[in-house]
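Lecture notes, structural biology module. Today: joint structure prediction for complexes of two components.
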Amino acid sequence: MKKFINDPGNVLAEALSGVAAAHPDLRVDPVNRIIYRGEPTRQGKVALISGGGSGHEPLHGGFVGPGMLDAACAGEVFTSPTPDQMLEATKVVDAGAGVLHIVKNYTGDVLNFEMAAELAEAEGVRVASVVVNDDVAVEDSTWTAGRRGVGTTVLLEKIVGAAAEEGYDLDAVVALAQRINAAGRSMGVALTSCTVPAAGKPTFDLPEDEMEVGVGIHGEPGRHRVPLASAKEIAAMLVDPIVNDFDAGGPAIVMLNGLGGTPIIELYLMYGEVAPLLEAAGVTIERCLVGNYITSLDMAGCSLTVLKADDELLRLWDAPVRTSGLRWGV
Amino acid sequence: MEQLTDWLRRFRLLVDEHQTELTELDSVIGDADHGANMARGMAAVVAKLDAESSANIAELFKTVGMTLVTSVGGASGPLYGTFFLRFGMSAGPVPALDPGALGAALRAGLDGIVARGKAELGDKTMFDALAPAVDAWDESVTGGGSAADASVAALAAAEGGRDATIPLVARKGRASYLGERSAGHLDPGAASSTLLLSALADSLRA
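The predicted structure, tokenised, for the full assembly:
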């Protein structure tokens, strides 16, 4: 293992110190491992918190700031944060209009956020949750823990964040979040595994001439292992499962996301391959993002997210945002 | 109560001893953190045991459960945490448990895991080891067995249930994303749950 670390047990704490040093406009609570905006939530604004295991940066801490999240709870690498962290964040950011928990659909995240929501309700804070489950790689969801929450989470946090800034109330924010989740689909592939610092070696072995299709964001193997293919062929492996899963036609926001170990030049090359395939499938790409937004440590690979977008979603997408991970219009 | 505290300390030692193995099992069908998470949680539990004494069994296991819930994360935190919280609620504010009451507390803990995780037998989870173990405990006690006898029967049943997870296709948790590829591997949660029963058997026979 070759990593910029001092002690595998201190990676998260030391990274949070770095976040605090790099971003004086954020407030980091090192004890509870929460990243807040520098300013308290405006009275009457619905507050948004998210959280999850670390190792997916910039998700979620990189999306805290005006126009997006109010706080993010960081768990250990690939491990959900705990209910006490989420409860603390929920109480701190509540400004009287309630708090939305944005949860990615993984057993641990869902269980911990459920416990936190119960505790917060008991303390008089109104909490609603949306569970993102957009990963088309998980096929038969009745026999699994359900589809994983992946790329759509990023787009949802941006759009719902803008809605909260605009003054949507909690019910409207929840309805919008559910609508976005229902309209988003993602698919990922990996060329390498990744190395969890505490484990010290790659989570699985992947020979030079093979790749994994249908990976999530935790270094877990995908649904299938296939021989390494050209970018053009891989683009079809990303696009086909998405456009076959739902009626993808019409205007959309598209994200071609790197999993952490893939150079940006390859992401652009891949975007060049997926865009015409999407257009051929009837998708009109209105907005796009290319880059590392929801990662899996040092995994080489990428994921494609397609979010069907109407005028409301596009307007909220274009609204100003000022976070370390996404920043425009300000 | 001393034996139950000893159970927790022994569980911590077993988790430490098997930490790498648990993580390796998890790296095959999960996300390679089960050993580290359980070790961190049980270290926090033992630190609590060292720092403060509980007045009764209910209080002891409330502390243990909340410590796990707030220190582990992942799915294991709420699941093991709920197990111990319900165990303590069932046991009540008493200084000691007879074999029947201990079995009832184990059953309550198991029911708590089901309430939170919605697992069923054969889903390839910790439930597959714990459920037969609690059944075996009850059967042993009904047949006149002591707590030590029951714990040995429960451990054997847990080992059987744990090993029976190998051919299963996971239907819960992160392993379920692998579909058929999860078959052929031992479930890490079933493995750590078996350690819990192993620690119990060790402390009751000591």
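Point to remember: Chain B has a mean pLDDT of 94.
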